[in-house]
Amino acid sequence: MSLNSFWFVIIAVLWIGYFILEGFDFGVGMTLKYVAKDQAERRAVLTTLGPVWDGNEVWLLVAGGATFAAFPEWYATLFSGFYLPLFLILVSLIVRGVSFEYRSKYGKPEWRGRWDNAIVISSALPALLWGVAFANIVKGVPLKDNGHGVIEYVGGFFNLLNPFALLGGLTTFFLFATHGAFFLALKTRGEIRARANYLAARTGLLTAVLAVIFLAWTTFKLTSKTDVRIFSLVVVVAWVLALGAQRLGRDGWAFLASSVTVAMVVITLFAALYPNVMPSSLDPASSLNIFNASSTHYTLKVMTYVAVVLTPIVLIYQGWTYWVFRKRISATDIASPNEGVLDKIHL
Amino acid sequence: MNALDLARWQFAITTVYHFIFVPITIGSGFLVAGLHTAWYRTNQDKYLRATKFFGKLFLINFAIGVVTGIVQEFQFGMNWSAYSRFVGDIFGAPLAMEGLLAFFLESTFLGLWIFGWDRLPKKIHMLTIWMAALGTLFSAYFILAANAWMQHPVGYVLNGSRGRAELTDIFKVLTQNTALAAFFHTIPSAFLTAGGLFAGVAGWMIAKKRDVEVAKPVMKMGLITIIISFLIVGVTGDWTARVMTSQQPMKMAAAEAAYDTKSNMPFSLLTLGTLDGSKPVFQIGLPSVLSFMSTGNFNGVVEGVNDLQKEYVAKYGPGDYKPNIPLAYWGFRLMIGFGALCALFALIVLVRLRKGNYPTSKWLLRAMISLPFLPILANSFGWIFTESARQPWVVFGLFKTAQGVSPSVGAGSVLFTMITFTALYGVLAVIEFGLMIRTIKVGPEPTPKPGAKDSDVLTMAY
Questions:
Q1: What span, in angstroms and rounded, lies between the C-alpha atoms of A263 and A241?
Q2: For residue A249, what are the domain limits?
């Protein structure tokens, strides 16, 4: 395997990590007001995310940084081309991070209510937009060589809102919502868990329908690669297993299967792309691929050493965090749910 | 304004704003870790209360630092795609390393620290805050190495056919003196900033006679941190100035509003120039001091702006190579001035403290309250100076800022995102400042009763 292919795989792995981890964050965030009705439940739900959400988001930063380092042309074309969707994602991530940290500082219902709304919207929007973005990447967008060998995005914002992309957005939206519900069912007890399960069973079916249409579109209209078809099939099987495990009340297996589903969706899309990284809808010669978008061999080699040494270490300590906080949480664990640390002045 | 001007403004706004919180976070992480260690070693209640109280202030800042940092990484691609193409082979590597080595460390271990009070053995729990602090240090190192490459590119070749710079030696990029000087100048200033915050808050508590036993050791720690950091900042600032004079003479000349080449160059205390910044009208200065600062010799020759302009035209072709001189001149002075003022106040309070007098007078109290703000201003002006005085270059000598902007992004898009970010940042600043003030007023929590429930211990949690 060439280093270029290797880095294509690494980038895919980083997105897999990101979507499995922040995918459930998004799901939990956007369904917060449904799965948790009172203050004790809301704080319990947020506490399931508390120790991990920031580390989960770093996967995005590393995916972005690694793309910059390994495929600078891809990074430059993608980020300047998908300008407004990425901007909306950035705004959402800013609002979301602050909301988690600040919402429970005061007990006042208006204060908390506003942050809760912020959490719901800022979790839902990226869940939708990442699907839109990736569907567009796979489908191909208007890219053109500017005559100096630089491949630029020449479409507008509305080019990105085509039916296939919107279908992709809805698919990730419901996939993450269900994935988050599986996570909550695994991490909580009592009422919250019951609601999460109820939700997962319903959004799970909707996700299945959307995913099948989306994958059929990908495998029959966009590409005829055999591996893409096999991977799509694995997506469907994994999802069926997830829904089945949920019915049997096996929370751990359901979450595992849904994580595999998320991973397989990313793998399917990257397999459909390969060896392109951003196909052009105008002219195949203007497509960005793992060669014309990449860094030099030297840079890829340096980055390979760094990634090979550091990634296992990161996986070990991040995994350890999940182990430390493995205990299920319920509303009754929250001693004084209506109070915030800033309510009372201690003297 | 065109897309280029707007993209520059946007970069300036998002970066200056981000960097208000970064030094507070870097320094506070270590100081909180110090307090936590003091508690671990002595088991004294006051240190535990101080750890949690200052930990809260640290986390409020950390949150904004993190979320605004995401914008930093993505705006290169969004607004500066041509720049990203030109430098990606080199610049991307330290950014990716920063994510992999630093961001994971900070975020994961901070999560463990916040939520781990009752879950982890005491010693391991204390180590988590040290790991998070270490992460901030790595982060600073990699991003400063990337920035240093823009100030002074090394370890690369130009590939004409692909129109970009390509990496040939990563070790040169990561260990060149520009990067090291910047690191050893920036880190102590982060400590100075955190020292200012801790001393200021603790001083206020003492003056108000609130939780004095918690505040006293913190104030001392803060003041000593300020003094030591200031001394190191001074020494490494001198180093930075010399590196800068040899690598970017125009920047030093602009910082001094030194228009003509001279030996025995004075250090200007005040320069008033013509409005376009092309000629000085009135100057007072310390004789020969600038020559010493930039060359290590009082008789050293320092090149002036006008001669450098001629040199650069000969070397790089026609163009205006002068940065905004008033901005550079005042940025440089305000950086030094605010930092020195902070150290001076700290010294006065510390001297009185030695005689056993905790600050009670109105003026001393006011000086204490200014301590958290002075270093923040110094940091901002320092970076405004060092980035603006590199102009017109974005990568010195290789690539101009004007060449770097995204050709596919219109002025309207940049304006829209700039307005939104600025408004959002404004709102967040108000909320964050309110939370800081309120947290300080609420004060350290009383010690939890023994046998408290699980979640009573989650004082910092959601």
A1: 14
A2: 3-143+152-333
> Which member of A100, A311, A336 has the closest CB to residue B462?
A100
Q: pLDDT (tens digit, 9 = 90+) per residue, B295-329?
A: 667 667 778 888 889 889 999 999 999 999 889 98
Residues B198 and B216 in one domain: yes
Number of domains in chain B: 2
Could you please report the per-residue DSSP string of B310-354?
A: HHHHHHH-SS-----HHHHHHHHHHHHHHHHHHHHHHHHHHHHHH
Hey, is B262 helix, strand or coil? Answer: strand
DSSP annotation string for B201-232: HHHHHHHTTSSHHHHHHHHHHHHHHHHHHHHH
Backbone torsions φ then ψ of A203, nearest 5 degrees: -65, -25
B136 interface with A at CB cutoff 8 Å: no
**Same domain flag for B300 and B434:** no
Secondary-structure breakdown of chain B: helix, strand, coil percentages, each rounded to the nearest 5: 70, 5, 20
Q: Which uninterrupted H or E stretch holds A304? A: helix A297-324
Alpha-carbon gap: A83 to the closest alpha carbon of chain B (Å) = 6
| Distance, C-alpha B448 to centroid of its chain | 36
Residues B308 and B416 reside in one and the same domain: no
d(CA B18, CA A271): 38
Examine the domain organization and report whether B379 and B429 are in the same domain: yes
Instruction: Let me know if residue B273 belongs to a domain.
Output: no
- The burial of B8, by beta-carbon neighbours within 10 Å (0-12 exposed, 13-18 middle, 19 or more buried), is given as buried
Q: Does residue B233 sit in the same domain as residue B380?
A: yes
Tens digits of residue pLDDT in A227-281:
999 999 999 999 999 999 999 999 999 999 999 999 999 999 999 999 999 999 9
Asked if the structure places residue B460 within a domain, the reply is no
> Does one domain contain both B24 and B122?
yes
Domain span at residue B310 reads: 258-266+286-317
Q: What are phi and psi of A328, to 5 degrees?
A: -70, 150
Could you give phi then psi for residue B332, rounded to 5 degrees? Answer: -60, -45
Q: Is residue A291 part of a domain?
A: yes
Lookup: tokens for B51: 């750890």
Classify residue A345: in a domain, yes or no.
Answer: no
Q: Is residue A341 in some structural domain?
A: no
Residues B160 and B83 in one domain: yes
Instruction: Give ipTM to 2 decimals.
Output: 0.91
Asked if residue B122 belongs to a domain, the reply is yes
How many cross-chain Cβ pairs, A to B, lie less than 8 Å apart?
A: 259
| Residue B170 in this model has a pLDDT that exceeds 90 | yes
Distance from CA of A344 to the nearest CA of B (A): 6
Is the torsion defined by CA of B255, B261, B267, B273 positive or negative?
negative
Count other C-beta atoms under 10 Å from residue B460's C-beta.
Answer: 18
Q: Which one of B275, B294, B317 terminates a domain?
A: B317
Query: Per-residue pLDDT for B140 more than 90?
Result: yes
- Min Cα separation A7/chain B (Å): 13
Residue A121 forms contact with B (CB below 8 Å): no
At residue A321, φ and ψ (nearest 5 deg) are -55, -45
Backbone angles phi, psi at B347, to 5 degrees: -65, -45
CB B73 within 8 A of CB A61: yes
Q: Are residues B301 and B346 in the same domain?
A: no
pLDDT-derived band at B454 (thresholds 50, 70, 90) equals very low
CB of B113 closer than 8 Å to CB of B136: no
Number of domains forming the structure of chain A: 1
